[in-house]
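Second opinion, please. Pick holes in both lines of this record:
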Amino acid sequence: MDKQLDENKIENQVYKNGDVLTSFGEFKEYLSGKVSLGKKLGMDEEQLANSAQKLADYLASQEPPRNSEEHLLQQLWKVGTEEEQHTLAHMLVRLVQQ
């Protein structure tokens, strides 16, 4: 099986969009749960960051921020280069693993 296809199947399991999160704490708990699930499914940090980057792209373009922290993250995401966004995705993954 193609590694990219396998990674996409895992992402579909891990990052289901549509959950409404009303606080930054809920966002962190949600992301933490998804990161934990991804790790259980065998994803490494790079795969987790790639998935987090895809989720952040979706949120930045489709979901309004629900608090000041999410607003800040959305603004940083929108002004960042793809490389900076990827770095931020890594940072978010590490943030919720603490």
